[in-house]
Specification:
alpha/beta, Beta-carbonic Anhydrase, Chain A, 5-stranded mixed sheet, 5 strands, about 40% helix, about 15% strand, globular, binds zinc ion, carbonic anhydrase
Length: about 190
């Protein structure tokens, strides 16, 4: 059975058994908060439990490394929508120790791309168009520095209101313990 078939089979049972009933809520985040975190598999259930987030409590955005790379990219767009459309008052950037984006070997990644059929010419064309794939893929050396940079990207956005708090946290991916890097309350 393929992954899709397995999901569809599970889904049929999920609906038939009305397992969704305990998750019913609204799209307005009750705790008026948005969390930007990493796609790390260890955080899928651990992060909400460790932060006491239940269905309906918060907007959650995930990407590789919990990073805001561009002022006008998808992450920043989501944060602004959370603030202006869904009444979010606090933004939490939650990175974690042992992140796959720290010291990511981007040269190796490009080699893997070529092994999977991406042509050298394609990379060259991108390079000539001003896109250096390796530096674009590059993560960070220190999660603490990266969190601080993301917080400052958010706060310095021309469309981000001054009264919204932005916090920077680091989570232990085994225990869920939180370390405050930037306290937005102060
Ligand atoms: Zn990560």
């Amino acid at each position: 059975m393929s992954k899709l078939e397995k999901i569809m089979e599970h889904n049929k049972n999920f609906i038939n058994n009305k397992e969704y009933e305990k998750y019913v809520t609204t799209k307005i985040p009750k705790k008026k908060m948005v969390i930007l975190s990493c796609m790390d598999t260890r955080l899928t259930e651990l992060l909400p439990k460790a932060m006491n987030i239940k269905n309906g409590d918060a907007k959650i955005i995930k990407d590789a490394g919990a990073t805001v790379m561009h002022h006008f990219g998808g992450v920043m767009r989501s944060i602004l929508v959370a603030v202006y459309e869904f009444g979010v008052e606090d933004v939490f950037v939650v990175g974690h120790h042992g992140c796959g984006m720290s010291n990511l070997d981007t040269t190796d990644l490009v080699i893997k791309m070529m092994e999977m059929g991406i042509k050298k010419e394609t990379l060259l064309t991108l390079y000539n168009g001003g896109i250096n794939v390796e530096s674009w893929l590059h993560g960070f050396e220190s999660v603490e520095v990266s969190i601080k940079e993301s917080v400052s990207m958010i706060k310095s956005h021309p469309l981000f209101p001054e009264n919204i708090k932005v916090h920077g946290l680091i989570m232990n991916p085994e225990t869920g313990e939180i370390e405050v890097v930037i306290n937005g309350d102060k």
